[in-house]
Design a protein that fits this description.
20 helices, Jelly Rolls, 7-stranded antiparallel beta sheet, about 30% helix, Rossmann fold, single chain
Amino acid sequence: MVMATGGGYFSDDFSGQSEVILQTLEAGIRLGKPAVILSCGFEPVSVRSLSQKMLGVFPLLSLVVCRESQQSPMVARSFGVPEQRLVVAADEAIELAFDLRPTVLGERLGINVRQADYAGVDANTLSRLREGLGSAISRLGAPLVAGVPISLAGPSDPDAIASLLHGIPGISYTSYPVATPQDVVQQIGACRVVITGSYHAAVFALSQGVSVIALVASPHYRSKMQGLQAQFGPACHIVFLDREETATHLATAIQDAWQAAGTERQRLLQVARQQVSVGRAAYERLAALVADVPANPRNSATSELTGISTQAPMNKDTSELPVCLSPEEIEQFRTQGYAGPFTAFSPHEMEKFRTTVCERVLPTPTPYCPFGLRVRHLDSQAVHAMCSAPAIVERMASLYGPDLVLWNSNLFNKPPARPEQQEEYPWHQDHYNWNMEPILNISAWLAITPATLENGCVEIIPGSHRQIIPPAIDTDPAKSLRFGGIASDPAYVNETRKVSMVLEPGQFFLFNERLLHHSNPNRTTEHRLGLAVRVTVPIAKVSEPFPCVMLRGEDRMGFNRYIEAPLDEPDSHWLASLPPGHDYLFDRPIPGRGWHVRETEGPHHFAWTGLEPETWIDFRPVGVGDHLLRMEVVHLLTMAAVSELQMQVNGQAIAVHQEQVGDTLVLDARVPDAVLRSRADRVRVVLKGSPLVRPCDLNPESTDKRSLGLGIRRIALLPMDASGTEVEAEATNAKAPAPQPPTAWYRRLLG
């Protein structure tokens, strides 16, 4: 057996080391030996040579054990590790530290800092740390500070610790000699709190019931520390070192951790005990794998035990796996505008992605775009994992070179067709609405669920990318609410040459920004779900309000702004992100979905409903008792938008009363306490049923092709003791005639 164990080296920062390890594993596989990776972390990879090597070796491994659940399993799957050979366990060092734990909590403040390029820590970072650390030590009464080095050379933790602590007044710093891992573990076990920029110092501390302040200044350590935080909980507190308030945050975090350390100890030890059990279970699978290795593996058939293959296929050189386009496929893309289909994931993997997208991504708004199906790679780990699949990225690199920028993505959740809403996408070229210069893009359309003729798969016209086709003046709004009224002039479309791209889940095809394509209505009873991955090169300047993600290589131009790839799903942070209070004036990002972009009118802000058929907004839970839901409408196009409005709170319909106050239409509804309490985590207000109208359909001279419902300036939940009597009085009166909208509502929109 050939084994690689205990490290976070599968990353761009350690690509050379990783490639050597993979070559060793590959040599064992060619000799018929089982090859395994134990207790490792995996990061997204953009170094081409490492990515290709991982694509070649990972599918042939007999067992892969990830040491955290947040990122590593997704990366391992994307490089072809079969699901039945993938295990999520814990870091193997946890058991060592847990067994050496002291009987009582220590009283030292442990310090570790890693000064290295891959850690993102330099002299300026140490200066900010020194300020926060000095403030915290002063508040705590200058506890005994102990250095807990992990790396003794290249980079040297003792040197970095000494540099950090130099000049802090009143400090009592002791550097204890360490010669073995056990020495380090015992020094950490004598601490009450450990501040660390090293992953294993955090592992040793948490496993002994010692709270941790994790210092993060790079993507490499962010993924490591967030993995530990997911395992051990809030006693692993992360402080990001690239923030202006780093010193303040660090001082506060140290004080809070110091005070809570006593109560956190038993919980941490219980978690560590569970992690030890999980780790041992993984090693039991390894033991079973060893026991099942045949005496002459070169001549034995592949055996199976607990779903793990002990031998890799011997008839395929891993360097020959088809991760790039062939010359024939490159020529097809050049002359026909597309290539494929290819396979990026198995149907089993896509079912997991589908579940995550439907249950955790689509129901949650994104702060990057008002339309919830767009750019979800910026806040969803699952969507980013699909966008960054090596099978997609490496084929794109065959066409557009080594440096690739993920600038956009779109989820297509095509519903079953209805008479009033067909959701048909007319023939179009993608470049019509894109804000980039020059317009240079390659897209991958990835099927999450089956894409068939019946449910409206994408259809293309090969070779149509050779000319820029003028857009049509208008389109039928019943075809697709999200299409914006832009389509190709039908006079230029020859449908006799079309090709239907029927795809299984996990399959994709590539096409450029000028290829004519469309999709028919979905004639089935199930949604058709797919993902379009939009990629450009650094020479293109993207002028969108959302950032880019560097998908592969590097940006030497500096035209675009970037963020790091997400490490979890958007629902993990949604409730905590809800603004305080219950009176929303559209003066900050909308905590909901289905709204058009916020607009300003004098000193006020408002937003239109209608971006999606259903619009909603979330509030934090309210106090006890009935509440008044008040909504102020300042713009509408037809009174049917109000008369046919259906309003729900926490899924239950409520009656609405209306009154015109000047140019504002005030909608009030009494919400019983029982309705507000039916959800413990939030109050969700849903607006639906309003007919959506496009200004261009009412006034041919208008260029506004948005589908609009109501323009709303305020939504508030008010205690009934403030206005309950007035609402009850309205309910007993005869219904007043519907108010007529002020002329200004029409004039501004219809020109």
